[in-house]
């Protein structure tokens, strides 16, 4: 089975540097241009199902992909972004001022419980890996497109690469509408390629 796992298109809060997590904001004009470029890049892929995080920014991205592939589009909470607790809705400067310890641990890639009202990065990684395994158990020789979020994607790739240090988490950041290809076979996960963004090079 093959998964095309991607980050949603640029949202207003992405462009303004505001921490989103489970909160939401609309897509920007650039975000819609990113979707167009992504659809063009993936047009030959034999995608039979698009599954999205329930957030609006992810669903808007997913619906455009499903229309191109002429396939169903579903949502699943297991693809939602990491919960950042009290940091959500704040700029980096505001978060650092109001919650300095949690903010520093968040941006350092802290893996454990750093925010009592949020979700740890390890929890996100387990959630993402478990979901891909459950899908692959029920659907063989299919290609699914999964629309998720930046930190959730980082946690997934960090785990599939077998990393141990939180410092390595930052290496796997994804641009909006960049994508990763993951295969699942009898031997487990195969990370084919990650962070593909060549289709975005000419966008402004």
UniProtKB/TrEMBL annotation:
Q: What is this protein called?
A: Histidine phosphatase family protein
The residues that hold substrate are 7-14, 57
Q: Name one GO cellular component term.
A: cytoplasm
Among Pfam families, the record links this protein to: His_Phos_1
Instruction: Give the InterPro entries listed for this entry.
Output: His_Pase_superF_clade-1, His_PPase_superfam, PGM_Phosphatase
One of the entry's Gene Ontology molecular-function terms is: phosphatase activity
Q: Where is the active site?
A: 8 (tele-phosphohistidine intermediate), 81 (proton donor/acceptor)
């Amino acid at each position: 089975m093959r998964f095309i796992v991607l980050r949603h298109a640029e949202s207003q809060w992405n462009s303004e540097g505001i921490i989103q997590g489970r909160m939401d904001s609309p897509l920007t004009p650039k975000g819609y241009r990113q979707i167009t470029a992504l659809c063009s890049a993936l047009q030959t892929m034999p995608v039979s199902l698009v599954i999205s995080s329930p957030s609006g920014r992810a669903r808007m991205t997913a619906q455009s992909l499903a229309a191109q592939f002429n396939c169903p589009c579903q949502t699943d909470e297991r693809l939602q972004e990491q919960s950042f607790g009290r940091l959500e809705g704040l700029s980096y400067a505001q978060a650092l001022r109001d919650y300095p310890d949690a903010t520093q641990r968040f941006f350092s890639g802290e893996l454990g419980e750093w925010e009592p009202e949020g979700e740890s990065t390890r929890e996100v990684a387990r959630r993402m890996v478990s979901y891909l395994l459950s899908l692959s158990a029920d659907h063989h020789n299919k290609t699914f497109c999964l629309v998720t979020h930046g930190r959730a994607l980082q946690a997934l790739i960090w785990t599939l690469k077998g990393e141990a240090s939180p410092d390595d988490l930052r290496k796997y950041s994804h641009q909006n509408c960049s994508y990763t290809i993951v295969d699942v076979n009898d031997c487990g996960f195969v990370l084919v390629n990650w962070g593909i963004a060549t289709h975005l090079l000419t966008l402004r």
